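Chain and backbone:
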Amino acid sequence: TRIDVLENTGEQIDTDTGGGLEEGSAMLAWSPSVGGIYYVRVTLIGDDIGMYQLKISVEEDGYEPDGSIATSKDVLPIDGSLHQHTLHEMSDEDHIAFRAIAGFAYRAEVVSSVYRPQFMQPVHISIVDSLGNVPVTNQPDFPSFVETVAEFDGTHYVRVSPNSGAPNSEQALGTYSVGVVVGDDPYEPDNSIAQADTVGPITQGEDQ
């Protein structure tokens, strides 16, 4: 058996004819240079006609190790931009940082191809503050995102891991995208001069 990886143009990128875990099987480890759609071509070599199984899995992403807030490397902007990560094994736990201001609301969302609104989600999401406290985790009604109001200024973290309590937890393994947006600040509503909050006397050089 031979495995080829092809670009969407049909051009062959890599190939392998051995190295699998069983006799006659093939295994190919490959890292794409750019994101996009790729194809796997399986070709028979010899006389082993019949059915075959194809498995595609991901390895560690470039941010590993990031299994704790101390080892977190990725910093998210709070404009909803998505950063891509992987969960490569059931024990994997990712921590992605974002900077928060006390009193402001933040929403962290994970976009995954395995998200299904009607089922228990295989991906577990939490927000962790810099002290290691976990003020919020995803709930069954809103399984793809979490929201919290920061209690103090400083770095907070989105923690993502396989949900071991879900019957389909192994579906969490693979790539996902995560983003954070900022919501209401503590001065809302302030859409008119009548609703404007009084900030008190202003001292030169002091932020308000």
